[in-house]
Each structure stands twice: as structure tokens, then as C-alpha cells.
Amino acid sequence: MTAISSISKSRPRVKRSPKSVLKRNPQLAIGLAAVGIVLAVAVLAPVLAPHDPERVVGPALLEPSAEYWFGTDRSGLDVFSRVIYAPRIDLLLAGVGTLLAALLGVPLGALAGYAPGFVGELISRVLDVVQAFPFFILAMCLLGIVGGTVPNIIAVLAVVNAPIYARLMFGQTQTLRNRTFVDAARVSGCRPRQVIFAHILPNSMAPILAQMSVTLGMSIILVAGVSFVGAGLRPPTAEWGVMIGDAAGGMFTGQWWPVIFPGVVLALTVMSFALVSNGITAANEARSRRG
Amino acid sequence: MNDKRAEKRAADSGEFVLECRDLVRHFPVKGTKKVVQAVNDVSLSFRPGETVALVGESGSGKSTIGRMILDLLKPTSGDVLYQGRPLAGMNRQEYRDYRAGVQAVFQDPYDSLNPTKTVLSTVREPLKRLGLEESAADGLRRAMEALETVGLGDITRKTRPHDLSGSARQRVGIARALVTRPRFIVLDEPTSALSPIARAEVMKALHEVQQATGVSYLFITHDLAIVESLARRVAVMYLGRVVEMGTAEEVFRLRAHPYTEALLGSVLFPDPERLAGFSVLRGEIPSPIDLPRGCAFRTRCPIATDECEEGVPALATATGTDHLVACIERDTRSQGLHLATTMEGNQNT
Amino acid sequence: MADHIVLDIRDLRVDGGGDRPFTLGPIDLALAPQEIVGVVGDSGAGKSLLVSTLTHTLRDPAAVTGGQIVFEDEDLLKAEPKLLQSIRGGRIGFIGSNPHGLLHPMLPVGRQVANVLRAHKPLSKAEAREQVLEMFTAVGIPDPLRRLDAYPHELSGGMAQRVVIAVGLICDPDVVIADEPTAGLDVTIQAQVLELIESTVRSRENRALLLATRDLGIVARFCDRVVILDAGEVVEQRPTGELFRDPETDVSRALLAASRGF
């Protein structure tokens, strides 16, 4: 048997350099880099911003210049500094909201998917009801009721997004519970909770993370959106939606800069989260193809 | 009180490690009142150290029996007994003993290992979950020992399933089944997903483990070509029932049930000289939802008569020994009537 | 008769492409009329690469690096795409395993087989359907008329595999390439399916079958000649009986031993 025994020997693990990751998964690489930049800007805002974002620094509605790179808005605040400060509040709200949504939805979905019969059915129906409302309108209504404070916005983000995670996890659990390694785990003595946390959850992390990246982007839009229509944060908070909403009227009279600059940065930020999400999905597919 | 003690003694004396008594499993068909009769009235018993093969076509219910033995599926009726105690009535400690004592190796080595866990932690898991390790270090050491017994001593703490070949993965599965020093292992088609050489390696590992530990195997397989050399006893299943059971030698030589005859006649042995008796069973296995009345095999049986429609034939001794056959024609059959020729002429009854 | 060859593989070399270097060949293999040749090897020996090369379904980055596949004085590796189209699936039929992966899930199986037939022969829909019905009957599909309009998921594994066989045989090919045609089927069905393929191949004078499998039981029963592959190379090529009596190489000894238990 010596002639062929090498077949059964361990396969060497393939090492990948950062360069090849960029080549194999450019979406993930570029997306992560862009998200990294946004995060760095948020953290370093006090150092990077030339002015205080919430204090009047000069005349209103100055065009972009060497002194005020993105110009000033109608209250005389520096648009560039405000654009730089905005991700602090936007990422905080979106980040905490998304995390809570996942922490709420994932266990619910796992329970619905793993619990037999009645419990699963009940959770599914409740989710159907919540998801029947359009995401944005639901959020706006809820904020209209409770008021657009920071904790309320986070809570609303968590509530409107949680069903997405519950449904995702429900599907994952239904698929994974039929995999042989789950049977093997049960034979190894795992109780249902241990099966879910030690076996089903780790194998669901890729789609959950990909979804979290999408939710982050969507939540930023949501925060900006509700602030834009006046149901969320209020001026003079340095937040992209607030800035756009505050300056939107100026678009018609030629003062484009207080709208366009936060708008473009907002769009780029949401796009980089979408890239990260696609990248995670692609990486996971590549991994499962390698087996 | 006395009864209990007697029961305990019987269990300790270890005549049977594990028993299935009148196992029945029906699955409801969604949207109808019909049921799939996956397993009907199956009783099996296993002695220490022996290998029993459970053979039959797909849909015969053999894997369902394995799942019931492993408590992955509850029987509709009937009992699984471990060391004389029924699973249903076990207290917590007894159930833990059963979990440690009855393990499994599954069919697909690409699906039976959690891809996100290291091989070592997969093998250690039963010790951890069943509270059988003194410490994490102790658990890992014993997991490593189990891996060494199946020839995987070169596995490291970081090895993950995708670093391994099919044969190596399946041996990891064996190591996981061994680590609790079980008395009984269900082998559910453990080699059917493997290449020929890998299959031989895995069978060798299983054989060595049995020699060293005296564990009993239930070997569920449709690969009849390797059953003969491997199992002491064989049970042949057809549509949820055992139709013939005996020592491998008896079953392979006597082929007392016409289904056994047909099944063995279809086996392609890797030997050009061994073609005699090659016969082709006509027709497909009937649906387990609408089982034929009477003997389920009669729709494909070359010797079926009107009588076969009247009742399900019971397993009864054919040759005065442990050799059991469920066929009302068995008396004539056991006198050595050979059917290979009639099989060919009789198509699609 | 002896010098007539249906398919002639000469000095074929294929580069496997993947992460780990793998080369197949050189392979020299001639299929004589009515001959059934088994290609055997452990996993990773190169069987599937050989089958993909012969059926022209090699996927990037795998590529043929040399040699010829001669069919009726034409080197298929250099043939015009149009000629190749007419030969592949027509004069050279393919029977794969995994029927549910090979069949289109959204088309009735009868239509799928008819489409293959009409791609190669100028037939009306009705004529094609008629021939497919005959083929379904020939491959032992019970109630063939009703099964023509069935979708793949409505068929059992054994039934779907028969449809795949019908696809491979519908154009009355000269060469049949079969890759594990009975993988995943029960022994009783396996025997039926193989007998069917065998009788079809032997039913016409100028037809040959190349049967890739890892099951030496199948080889012992059905093949006239065996090619043993190991790590991409032909290590043994002999009549079946001889090989089983007296394996010459370690590889074939190991494969034989493995197939007989342990």
C-alpha cells in the first residue's frame, strides 16, 4: 500500500499573503480599507477638523475656499469640520443599533429554528408582522412616538433590524440542523443550547457578519434619513442627515456645497459597508468551495 | 426489588450490550393522513465485541434504526435498551452513561465534522460535554491519544477538517467515537463516501479498534461485497422489516429469503471468477407510504403466491438455529431449492 | 477487424492547473469495436480529468498540453468547434453520475433528451418525442409515456440515472464515455443499469465504451480491459482477467486488496 499511502496524508495549509487577498477578494480589501478610513476620521476628528463643528466660525454660506474647504452653511458653521465630525455620531448610532439588533434577532431566530413546532411557528408569525411594515416608515413612526433622542434612535434601529437577523438565523438553523455534524454533536452529548452556540452559530457567522455590514450602511442612511425629515437628531448636531436637511433648500438657489459634500461622503461610507458585506460573502463561498 | 436486582445482574453479565425491542417508526406525510412506515417491528440484540451488519436498499429503514439507537430520533413505539435499561426511562446519570457508551461514525466525512472547529476540539467534545474529563488538558491529551490510535498522531492543535483528506477525516470521526471508550458504535455507511484505498484504511482502523477494545459495531451498509469478511452476523432489511437474520456465513450461503437471494445476486464481487448466480432484481422498491398488503416483497418476489398477500410473515427460525427468515415459503427454501434460474424468467410480477 | 479502432487516444497530456501541480499522461489508449474498457484509480488519480478531456468539458485552468484524440481520422483536439459540436453528444455520448446535477431542474426530462437528439438530427418535435419514448422504454423506465413529462425532482435516483443514460445513448453514438454511471445507486438498481449499458454497447458492431469507476466489482463483471491510473499516469493496462489474477504493480495490488475488505 506504500505506493499510494501519501493520498491520505494531511494536506498542507495554503498560506496567503495580504497581496493575494487583495487580488482574490478586492471587494473585501477595498471595503475594509474605506471603512477603516471612515473610522480613523471619526476617531481623529478633533485633530483633523480645523474648526469646532458646532460653533459659528464665520459668515453664513461662504463658498469653498482655502480657509473653509467645504464652505460654511447658513448658520456660518464650517461644513468640512462638520462632515468630519458626523461619523462619530452616525457610526455610534448605527454600530450600537446594529449590534443590539443582532443580539436580539440571532437568539430569537435560533430558537425559532431549533425549537420544534409551536414556538418556532409563533416566532415566525410575529416576525412576519414586523417585517410587513416598510423599514423606513416603521422607524419614522416609532421615532415620532418616542422622540428622536440618541438612546431612542438606537432602540428603534435595534427593533426594526432585529427581524432580519431572526429570519437569517432561522434559515441558517433550519439548514444546519440537518447537517451530520449536528447529529454528531448530539451524540457527543451536546444539549440543544450547546448545539446552537457551539455548532450552529459559528457556522452562521459569515452571513451574520455580512448582514451586519449591510445593516450598518442602512442604519447610517436611516439615521440620516430620519434626521433629514426632522424625526431624528436636530441641528446643530454634526450629522450628515441633519446637515443635508438643514441645507436642502439652498440647492435651488445655488448653495450646493452644504448639501453635496455630506451627501457624497454619506454615499461613499454606505458603499464601503456594502463592499465589505459582499467581500465577506465572497470569502465565505471561496472557503466552502475549498471544503 | 428482586426483579430489579435480577435485571441488573443480567445487564452486568453483559449478554447484550444493546437491544432494540419491537422498534416502530412512522413519519407523517405533510398535508395528508398517511404515514411513511420507515421501520416496522424490528428487534435486534448485540453481544459484546461482535459486529452485526444491517443491509438493504436505500429506503429500507436501516439508517432510521441507527438514528433511533443513537436517540437522534424517538421511536413511534418500541424500546432501545442499553445494558438492559430502556432509554425512555433513564435518569440523568444513566443517560450520560448511555451517551458515553453508545457512539457513532457517520457516512459523509465531509459533513460530519464541524468545519469551524479544530479537529482536536471535535474529538475532545464528548469528554467535555459528558463531564468525563478532569481538566481541559486531560481532555485534550485523551483526544490526542484517540487520534493516535487511528493513525493520526501528526495532527496539531490547529488542524482543521479542511486540512485533511477524506480518509483522515473519517478517522477523526472514529477517534471522536472512541474517546469515551464506548461499548457500542453505530457505523452508518462509514466508507461509502470514500475512495477504495481510503475505504480500506478506514476499515482497517475500525478492525484494529475492535480488536483492542472489544467494542460492538452495528455496521449499516449497502456495500455487500465487504460485509461477508467483516460482520459476524447479518440482518437483511426490506421496506422497514428484517426479512432474514443469521450469521454472515449462513445468510450468504443459504440466502433463505428470496430478497436476500436477489440482493446478493446483484452484488458485483471484485472477482471475475465469481459471477455465478448473478441475477437482476426487476422493478423498483415500492413506496413505504403504500406498502403492499401482506409480505412487502411479494410485488418483486419470484416465488410469491396468493397466500403471501394474506399476512406479514413473521421472523421464524429456518434451520433450527439463530438463523431467522420471514417468508412463508421458507420451508421449501431451506431445503436447498435454488432460485437463480427462476429469477431470470420472472420479471415484474 | 483487429486494426479497426473506434477511438484512439495518443500520447495525451493534460495539465490539471489547480493549486497543486498535477499532470495527466502521457496516455495511450485505443478503444476497439464492442470493447468495454475500465479506467480505474483511487481518488486523485486523474480519472475525472481524463473524462473531462474526452468529453471536452475541461475547465480553466486545466488544459491539454499535448497529444491527440483521434476519432474517424480526425483529431478532436484540433477539430473545428462546429464539427466538435456535432460529434460531442452525438457520435460520442456521455453518461455521468449525479443525475440531479446533470439534468436541468426546470425542464421535463423527455424534452431534455429530445433536445439533445434534435441538436444532432433534423427531426420534428413529434419524431424526436417518439424516439425518446423508445429510448425510455429501452432503458427500462416503467410507464415511459408519463415519465416523458416528469421533472427531474419527481424521479427517484435510479430513474433519473436512467434518463442520464438515455441522454448518452439517444443519438446512437459510436463511443460512450461513462463516468461512475451507477454512483449512489442501490446494488439492485446498479446491476440493472450496468446490464443495460452493456447490452446497448454490445448491440452494435462498431461501438465502444470507456467506463471510469473506482469499483473493481463493476470492472470484474463488465470490462474487457482495464487501465489503472495513479497520480496521472497509466501504471497498468491489461485484460481484466489477467489483472485480477496477477496484478503487476503496487497500485493495482493495493486497489485489489482494498476492494476485498481489508
TrEMBL record, chain B:
InterPro entries: AAA+_ATPase, ABC_transp_ATP-bind, ABC_transporter-like_ATP-bd, Oligopep_ABC_C, P-loop_NTPase
Membrane spanning stretches: none
SMART domains membership: AAA (SM00382)
Residue intervals of the ABC transporter domain: 18-264
UniProt superkingdom: Bacteria
GO molecular function: ATP binding
Alphabetized UniProt keyword annotations: ATP-binding, Nucleotide-binding, Transport
NCBIfam families: oligo_HPY
Protein name per Swiss-Prot or TrEMBL: Dipeptide ABC transporter ATP-binding protein
Origin species: Actinocorallia aurantiaca
UniProtKB/TrEMBL annotation, chain C:
The UniProt record lists the keyword Ribosomal protein: no
Coiled-coil zones: none
Keywords of the record: ATP-binding, Cell inner membrane, Cell membrane, Membrane, Nucleotide-binding, Translocase, Transport
Annotated InterPro entries: AAA+_ATPase (IPR003593), ABC_Ni/Peptide_Import (IPR050388), ABC_transporter-like_ATP-bd (IPR003439), ABC_transporter-like_CS (IPR017871), P-loop_NTPase (IPR027417)
Protein name as catalogued: ABC transporter domain-containing protein
Pfam families reported in the protein's UniProt record: ABC_tran
Organism in which the protein naturally occurs: Actinocorallia aurantiaca
Localization terms from the record: Cell membrane
Record-annotated ABC transporter domain positions: 7-256
